Amino acid sequence: MASSSSQYPSQYPPPLLRRHTTRISSSQSIYALKSSVLAGYAAGCCGLIIGHPLDTMKVHLQTNSSSPLILKNVYNGIIPPLLTIGAVQSLNFAIYDNVRRYLFNNSRNQTRHQMKHQITVRPTDDLQINYLTDDDLTSISFASLTAGTLVSIVTSPMMKIKTIQQVTSQSLKDAVKTAYGRGGVRNFYAGFGVHVLCEGPGRAVYMGCYEYFKRGLTKNRGVSSIEATTPERMGCAGVAGIVCWTVIYPFDVVRSRVYGSFERVKAGKVVGDI
Prior knowledge:
By secondary structure, this protein is mainly alpha-helical. The chain has helices at residues 4-7, 26-63, 79-115, 131-134, 137-168, 172-181, 192-221, 230-259, 267-273. Helix 5 (137-168) crosses helix 6 (172-181). The chain is elongated.
């Protein structure tokens, strides 16, 4: 058997254990985190303002709403998500990032343990490599699934109120009264299971596809995925969004009908009616 030094003659230590040449300080990491949260909030607000009219049309078609869909009604229900998007984005990012880091570090430690008898790591070697470019797509999807599932607990009441407003053209105050008056707090979580299916697996599909396409594009150019250009990121996000909605759309139809109902109905009954 060849010695450990001959196994990795030109790239010691091996790629999985070798750190990137760019050192990122803690202050830079905090700044990047703050920038990501602020950018997410700004992007979310812009996305809501542009996409909410289309979402209202979608909900009307899904629920067969009899409420007139006129120009002044297309922004019905935008207030709840607009007020909460900053907190939701921050919570989602925090959970996603921490789970992704944990999975990456756990995988790295297992690999180090398996290879400790094959190579000798010098004490001066920094084994912290960039999880943003070196983790696998399974970890990314699982982290997204976890974040989406947990965030669903926060977003369910918001989705209930938003959908009622879109379907009935009620004011925010009246929509809250309608939702609460038909079963109390529990009514805000009627259909929670199908909501989780949209948010959890939906985010997993989206982020997994997004990273897959982004890494594929940048690999062809011979650069890291974090060096993807803005057009590349937008293109990858668009394709990932199409794949995501193709997967979750049937669940979204059921969710809209459950959340838009005045009564507490079960998702199974809605599926049967469809």
